Sequence to fold (152 residues):
Amino acid sequence: MVLHTTFGSSSLSDHDVLHAESAIGPIPDTLLAIYHGQNGGVMERSLFLSDAGDDYAMDYFFPIPEEGLEPAGQDIVHVNTALQQRQLIPADHLAFGMDGGGNYFSVARCDGSVWYHPLDTWEEDKSPAENHARTMERLSGSIAGFFDKLTE
Fold:
């Protein structure tokens, strides 16, 4: 599996990962393997076509902050901290990317499945749990399956 991005870094250290995980919880090993190959960026292969024929564009892969480098405006720690504080994704999910409209892609830590969170359909008069049940879309049973299906 090769992740194609237009920028990023493969200099991610174990210290960087531990620092991120101390703030946001565990990052699944399959996702970490992708991060060690390419730490975030704008996606070249960004289009995911679901089995139902719907397409989803993951335009940005959130980087893990690296010690000594200028932090990205949208890194995995800052994004997940904000999403969890506002309960915009379930507590057991980890957002790793977003589309151009500000909707998020996440992995469920309990089973490794990949989900889409269309926040443009969020209803303020409903609870977070109701919104999650109503809006979240399961895209893939695994991180590897999701990234393998990305195309240009």
